[in-house]
Structures are given as C-alpha cells and as structure tokens.
Design goal:
CATH architecture: Up-down Bundle
CATH class: Mainly Alpha
Number of helices: 6
Largest sheet: none
Order of helices and strands: HHHHHH
Helix content: over 70%
Radius of gyration: 20 Å
Distance between the termini: 62 Å
Number of domains: 1
Shape: flat
Strand content: under 5%
Number of strands: 0
CATH superfamily: Ferritin, core subunit, four-helix bundle
CATH topology: Ferritin
C-alpha cells in the first residue's frame, strides 16, 4: 500500500503522460492531412478530448489529497514535430502511448487496495489501450499490421500444405 506522498507521485506521473502527450500535440502541430484521412483526423481530436477529461479527473484526485499537480516538461520539447504527415504523427502518438501504458501498468501494480486510486488508474489504462489501438488505425499502421498477419498466415498454410504433400 502506498503512503500519501507516493500516491500523489503516481498520480502526477500519470498526469504527466496524460497532459504531455503526443496525442494532444497532433492538432497544434498543424499536420498535413492526406486525402481520405480527414475523418481519422477528426476521430483523433475526440481521443484528445477524452484524454483532457482524464487529466481533469487526475488533477481532482491530486487536489483531494492536498497535493500539487505537476506535469513536467513535454518529452519531445526539442524535436520539431510541426507540419508532418498526420499518419506519422498518429503512429508516433501510438508509440508514445505504448510507453505510457507500460509505466502505468507498473504503477498500478504498486497501488495496493486503494479502491478509488485503482479505479481511476484502471480507467486511464483502459482508455490508453483504446487510444493506442485507435491511433494505429488512424495512422494506417493497423492496416499494414493486418496485411502482414494475413500474409504470414497464408505463408504458414502454404508451408503446411507443402509439408503434408511431402509426407504423402
């Protein structure tokens, strides 16, 4: 079970990854939106709004513990991410969220039985997983992953058929 300060620390770490996210930066970076990706871009804006709502819940819990919300510095402050292709930015945001998921999973394993804290962090974790997958879809990377998996499955079937034929 975490002590009071450790709870605030976990919440602030989660807040950092929520406020300083590439997902929220996608819109302000003025990305190039390729033809056919306008709807995907609009969908990412909705994800951003959900993330902001989660940040507000984290701040409320930190304030309720008489803590001070602290978000730190945007991790890519020194990288020019402006005017890039939306597909790149969406996939980059998914990679960033994957890192945040790993940190949150470790933190969630340490919080013990604090039901309110477990519930909030669990909700944020679920949201991050959904956002990660949605960003892969938005970027087109999910299409590529599915195509690769289908190609691998087809190759496996072909190899199995050849092995069966050779055995006869």
């Amino acid at each position: 079970m975490l002590d009071h300060e450790a709870k605030i620390s976990v919440l602030n770490r989660t807040l950092h990854h929520t406020v300083n996210s590439v997902l929220q930066y996608v819109e302000v970076s003025t990305p190039y939106i390729p033809a056919g990706f306008e709807d995907r871009y609009e969908a990412v804006k909705l994800l951003r709004d959900e993330e902001i709502a989660s940040a507000n819940k984290l701040v409320d819990m930190i304030n309720g513990l008489d803590g001070v919300p602290s978000v730190g510095v945007f991790p890519y402050w020194n990288v020019d991410l402006n005017y890039l292709d939306f597909r790149f930015m969406a996939e980059f945001a998914a990679q960033h969220i994957a890192k945040a998921i790993a940190v949150l999973e470790r933190d969630l394993a340490t919080v013990g039985r604090d039901a309110e804290l477990v519930a909030l962090l669990g909700d944020v974790l679920k949201q991050r997983r959904v956002h990660h997958d949605a960003l892969l879809v938005a970027s087109g990377a999910a299409d590529e992953i599915a195509a690769e998996a289908a190609a691998e499955a087809a190759q496996k079937s072909t190899d199995e058929a050849k092995t069966a034929d050779a055995a006869e």
